[in-house]
Amino acid sequence: MGNKEIPVLIAGAGPTGLALACDLARRGVQFRIIDKADSTLIGSKVLGERDVHEGRNPTPSTPYASPLIIPQFRVEERLRALLARYEADVELSTKLISLQQDEEGVTATLQYPKGEESVRCRYLVAADGGRSFVRKFLDVPFEGETWKDERMYVGDVRLRGLDREAWHTWPNHPGGVLALCPLPSTDLYQLQAQIPAGEEQEPSLELFQGLVTGRTGGMDIELTDAPWMSLYRANVRMASRFRIGRVFLAGDAAHVHSPAGGQGMNTGIQDAYNLGWKLGRVLDGAP
Q1: Less crowded by CB within 10 Å, the N or C end of the chain?
Q2: How sure is the predictor about 47, in pLDDT bands with cuts at 50, 70 and 90?
């Protein structure tokens, strides 16, 4: 295909890339947003009673005192719907495989199942996750550490035998904490289970069932499906710089941390908004 020029190319269509696309669209900035995945995400990336909102009242400095619990795939679904209102969409099965830049812009090579395309853009935004191709391609250091002892199985599961009125946790099992948390607006629960040292296995429905049976003391909870499963390791890292010429790193491509630092999706979306208005102004002639 021939060389085409656009103001902004966004690599990665997770929450960060989608939020940036929506912000550019509402500012009238032309862009393309690509993702190497063939389909959209179906997973969410995280004995007693406790009200997690207890004591959390809005104040002028903290107007939103209580957390909004929502699966990541639902956030992405709504962002894609907003993008569609601007008559834009994500280009799936589209992989960024190389890039070159000069003082005027970036030339990116995109790979499709049936060929390649050279795209010329004024700016490239890498929102392509913690394993960012762009960050690695440009040799930007990702400084920090991996906490090898902080590992968990996580997954979205369907089950029978547990109500959806509360988060359910079993914190005292010798093997580690187990949590089954209903995900609003779905029929799913998110499973989180600590992994004892030296016991790491590939996630599976059978493994998850064994963990639930063992750590709940034999409660009659039957897992029926697990559409998304993953092995989580805590990484605390930050890129040495977020801008390399006309290329920007955003979201997990720029910084990752444990959930104790807040949800990374939130910081990535803030990256996107911060970058969106600045790109919009510069492309409109500002210094």
Answers
A1: C
A2: very low
Q: How confident is the model at residue 287 (pLDDT cuts 50, 70, 90)?
A: very high
- Calpha distance 31→7 (Å, rounded): 6
Q: Please, where in the chain does CATH 3.50.50.60 lie? A: 4-54+67-140+241-283
Distance CA 107, CA 130 (A): 23
CATH of 148-234, one of 1.10.238.10, 3.20.20.70, 3.10.129.10, 3.30.9.10: 3.30.9.10
- Where in the chain is CATH 3.30.9.10? 148-234
* Continuous segment of H or E residues that includes residue 15: helix 15-26
Rounded to 5 degrees, what angle do the CA atoms 160, 161, 162 make? 105
Q: Are 153 and 224 in contact (CB under 8 A)?
A: no
**CB contact at 8 A, 86 and 102:** no
Q: Is the pLDDT confidence value at 156 over 90?
A: yes
Rounded average pLDDT over 90-118: 96
Q: In degrees to the nearest 10, what's the CA dihedral of 221, 222, 227, 230?
A: 60
Rounded CA separation 173/285 (Å): 60
Helix (H, G, I), strand (E, B) or coil at 278: helix
Separation CA 142–CA 253 (nearest Å)? 9
CATH of domain 4-54+67-140+241-283: 3.50.50.60
Length of the chain: 287
Q: Which amino acid is at 105?
A: G
